[in-house]
């Protein structure tokens, strides 16, 4: 049995296991075995009850299965009987098919007769169609729109009823029947078109009519609503899909909005004669602002009560004005506009349009919320126009800077010196003119957006940098021309000093151009590239001034060292006169540039003084000459040091100390001690080279080859490193090239 029912075997095993578990739990103590008989009788009764319920359930199912089988046998017999009857009917229909075909012409005649009978029944009504058409046209021409429309609707209902009767015959109407109906209603479409034309004329002048004759506008709106109701009934009613109504749907409400939009566009945004160039653009924008505000007030106060609430006429008209104006401005912005026109458009779009003077006017609030309409011009277009505006301004600034530089350079060739301020410093109007022009452009841009202000500021910094580069190049060209003829320009030095003062004025004023500079705790930083341009322009002017000083000192440097120079102080006195004259001129420039020129002049004097000594023009022939040379060096250095000290340069800032150290090297009487003296000299001036030392030793005239070698070997053994912030002395002094020995052909070198 278990081979046929494996589930029964599994169930029996589970039952036995459960019983064993229960028994082990109940009879786990010997005293519990006394109740074994009681448990056995109880379980026997339970098994007997379960078996009786199982037998009852099985018997009930068997009886139900027997009844179902009996019903299936009865249903199978009924199906066979129906199949036989259907086969008999099919054979009868096949035999009568030819008879049905012979009745088809008769069926067509009956259908046509029914349709013509319907037309005949409608003839009394059809006879009045022409009279109703004529009456409706007269009412229309007399501006009696509601009455004319009532006649139109009556005619359309009559046509619909007749057409419905034709279709109710059960087949499509014949061409003859439809032709009869259409001939009677031929003028209906013409009447409908004439009424529509009259309505659109009224709607187009709606803003004017609601002030002059609102009843006419209201009549037009009522007619449109009637037509919308008919459209909805035909499209959504019970007869929506039976047959199409001629000319439906009319969709006059949609056409109402379209006419409103076309009227707004034609009135404000498509006028070909409007001047949108230069000042004309400003006047045109002001006119648009005034007209749109006035018309929206009329719509809100007078047109809204004339229209059903679901028209939402104020919101839709606001959107129409907004969209039309947006498209119109997009067209204008796509043209080639100058900077003033771009500024006017951006300012109008970003500030005037949403201001209380236009769309944010108190008379329009709160119904009109322009923030829900989106931007009048997209942010991408605004960004594009800002870049275009910056490009136009840049071209204008570049040209203006070029002309300003030309005028400034022409001023240099005047017979008069540049003007002075109340403190006696040379100056010109250049910084004021440049800063005013740049500041004006930045301030104008700030009236539009902060981003445009930042763009114009960045452009201004770039243009100022380019201007300074051009100025520096022009200085170089002017300096070259001046070298050819030092009498031109007549006041060359004065104008260079004025340029330095102008440069400092520009440098101190640039931070004021930064957007928001008034609110900053400290001045804004100057862009690094612009600061570099300022520094290079300043250095160029200083270099030209120092070159002028050197040109006047050069004839004096040529005379030293010489024995004539050793004999008196005339040469150094002349040098001091030249230096003092230039320093008086340099006093017309502000600090810290004056201090820079003073220090550079002192360094230049020392540098070329030392260069002149190293030209090997003189060699001391005796100890007396060495004493005389060292004395001359000491007196010259002292006189020059005192001069620069009196001019404002502290002795600790001077480089003339090297001449004092040199005279001690020359004054040394025992050449054997030169190595120690040179070592001290090297520690004081670590950038001195062995070539410099060799030339200075030659100047003494008493240094043997052995002593020279000892000194040079000592220098090689004690290399010096440059300390931090060391100001070079000998690095800037070129050592003259050694003279080549003169050789005769086929002989020894001299």
Automatic annotation (TrEMBL):
GO terms for molecular function: SNARE binding. InterPro entries: EXOC3/Sec6, EXOC3/Sec6_C. Gene3D superfamilies: 1.10.357.50, Exocyst complex component Sec6, C-terminal domain. One of its GO terms (cellular component) is exocyst. Its main location: cytoplasm. Keywords: Cytoplasmic vesicle, Exocytosis. It is found in: Cytoplasmic vesicle, Secretory vesicle. One of its GO terms (biological process) is exocytosis. PANTHER family: EXOCYST COMPLEX COMPONENT 3-LIKE PROTEIN, EXOCYST COMPLEX COMPONENT SEC6-RELATED. Interacts with EXOC2, EXOC4 and EXOC5; may be part of the exocyst. As part of the exocyst, may play a role in regulated exocytosis of insulin granules. Belongs to the SEC6 family. This is Exocyst complex component 3-like protein. It comes from Gopherus evgoodei. The lineage of its organism: Eukaryota, Metazoa, Chordata, Craniata, Vertebrata. The gene is EXOC3L1.
């Amino acid at each position: 049995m278990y081979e046929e029912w494996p589930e029964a075997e599994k169930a029996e095993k589970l039952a036995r296991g459960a019983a064993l578990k229960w028994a082990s739990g109940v009879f786990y103590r010997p005293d519990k075995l006394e109740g074994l008989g009681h448990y056995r009788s109880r379980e026997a009764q339970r098994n007997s009850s379960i078996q009786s319920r199982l037998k009852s359930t099985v018997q009930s199912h068997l009886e139900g299965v027997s009844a179902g089988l009996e019903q299936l046998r009865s249903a199978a017999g009924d199906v066979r009987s129906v199949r036989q009857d259907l086969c008999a009917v099919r054979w009868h229909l096949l035999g009568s098919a030819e008879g049905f075909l012979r009745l088809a012409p008769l069926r067509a005649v009956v259908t046509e007769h029914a349709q013509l009978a319907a037309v005949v029944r409608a003839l009394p009504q059809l006879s009045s169609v022409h009279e109703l058409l004529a009456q409706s046209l007269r009412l229309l021409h007399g501006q009696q729109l509601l009455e004319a429309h009532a006649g139109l609707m009556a005619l359309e209902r009559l046509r619909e009823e007749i057409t419905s009767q034709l279709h109710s015959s059960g087949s499509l109407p014949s061409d003859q029947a439809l032709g009869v109906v259409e001939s009677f209603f031929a003028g209906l479409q013409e009447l409908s078109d004439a009424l529509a034309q009259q309505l659109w004329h009224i709607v187009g002048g709606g803003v004017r009519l609601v002030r002059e004759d609102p009843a006419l506008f209201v009549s037009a709106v009522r007619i449109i609503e009637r037509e919308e109701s008919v459209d909805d009934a035909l499209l959504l009613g019970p007869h929506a899909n039976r047959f199409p109504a001629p000319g439906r749907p009319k969709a006059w409400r949609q056409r109402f909005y379209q006419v409103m939009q076309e009227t707004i566009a034609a009135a404000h945004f498509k006028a070909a004669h409007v001047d949108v160039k230069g000042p004309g653009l400003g006047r045109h924008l002001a006119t648009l602002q005034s007209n749109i505000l006035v018309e929206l007030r009329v719509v809100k106060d007078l047109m809204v009560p004339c229209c059903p609430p679901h028209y939402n006429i104020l919101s839709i008209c606001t959107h129409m004005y907004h969209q039309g104006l947006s498209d119109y401005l997009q067209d204008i912005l796509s043209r080639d506009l100058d900077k003033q026109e771009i500024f006017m458009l951006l300012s109008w779009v970003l500030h005037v349009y949403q201001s209380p003077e236009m769309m944010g006017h108190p008379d329009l609030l709160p119904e009109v919320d322009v923030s829900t309409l989106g931007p009048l011009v997209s942010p991408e277009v605004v960004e594009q126009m800002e870049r275009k505006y910056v490009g136009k301004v840049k071209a204008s600034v570049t040209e203006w800077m070029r002309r300003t530089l030309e005028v400034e350079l022409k001023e240099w060739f005047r017979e008069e010196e540049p003007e002075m301020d109340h403190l006696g410093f040379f100056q010109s109007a250049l910084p004021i003119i440049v800063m005013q022009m740049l500041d004006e452009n930045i301030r104008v841009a700030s009236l539009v957006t902060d981003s445009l202000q930042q763009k114009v500021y960045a452009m201004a910094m770039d243009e100022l940098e380019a201007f300074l580069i051009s100025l520096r190049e022009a200085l170089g060209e002017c300096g070259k021309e001046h070298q050819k003829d030092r009498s031109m320009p007549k006041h060359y030095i004065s104008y260079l000093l004025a340029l330095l003062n102008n440069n400092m004025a520009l440098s101190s004023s640039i931070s004021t151009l930064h957007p928001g500079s008034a609110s900053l705790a400290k001045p804004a930083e100057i862009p690094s590239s612009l600061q570099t341009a300022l520094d290079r322009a300043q250095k160029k002017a200083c270099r030209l001034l120092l070159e002028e000083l050197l040109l006047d000192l050069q004839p004096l440097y040529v005379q030293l060292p010489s024995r004539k120079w050793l004999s008196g102080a005339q040469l150094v006195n002349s040098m001091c006169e030249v230096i003092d004259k230039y320093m008086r001129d340099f006093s017309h420039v502000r600090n810290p540039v004056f201090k820079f020129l003073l220090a550079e002049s002192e360094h230049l004097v020392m540098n070329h003084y030392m260069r002149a000594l190293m030209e090997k023009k003189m060699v001391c022939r005796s100890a007396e000459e060495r004493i005389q040379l060292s004395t001359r060096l000491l007196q010259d250095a002292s006189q020059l040091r005192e001069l620069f000290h009196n001019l404002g340069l502290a002795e600790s800032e001077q480089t003339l100390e090297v001449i004092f150290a040199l005279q001690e090297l020359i004054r040394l009487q025992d050449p054997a001690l030169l190595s120690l003296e040179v070592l001290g000299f090297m520690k004081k001036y670590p950038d001195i080279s062995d070539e410099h030392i060799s030339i200075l030793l030659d100047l003494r005239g008493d240094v043997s080859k052995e002593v020279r070698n000892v000194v040079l070997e000592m220098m090689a053994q004690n290399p010096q490193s440059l300390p931090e912030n060391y100001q070079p002395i000998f690095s800037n002094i070129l050592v003259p090239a050694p003279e080549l020995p003169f050789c005769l052909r086929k002989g020894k070198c001299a």
